[in-house]
Amino acid sequence: MLLNYIKRVFGLPIQDGIYPAKPVHFPFIVDEILKEAAKGNFNPDCVRSAEHRTSLKSQIKTSISKGHCRTVLGDATSRIAVIYKDNEVCGFSWSVAASANSIELSMLSVRDENRGDGLGKKMLRESLSIYPKGYEVIVRIYKDEYKSDHNKYMQKMILNEGFREDSKQNKSTNQFVKLIT
Question: Is the four-CA dihedral 98, 132, 43, 123 of positive or negative sign?
């Protein structure tokens, strides 16, 4: 009872599930991004460049508090969600809609100790369910560590959810797309 009261006071979820990120989640999200970037699963510039880290932290804070962030393409609608399991935040997803009819699922991460629990798939499906019909969803997997087990699993998961490899590719990532119907 006391734990639930404290959670309510701080706006934290009382039961397991997926929720919009709050300022209290900021340290978890930043730590998870930096840890995964060091492994090559996210943009490696997050760990290489102090300027990039500062910009990233600003984008996360703005995304959590205002629902938008600044991207290289300009202002974009942004959504960060967290997933709870056993009263702990275990992962997050970050979506950015930078153009009129497309959304990029920029980041999806689950703590190492919770991988294999189906939380990433649950977050991906929840994200896909709230995107508008007719929008194209883009997911990129970094090629640096493309052979890692984590990235192989991510590729398999997104292909199983109906994504296809996009004809538009760049040198640092493999891009996958799905039209929301």
Answer: positive
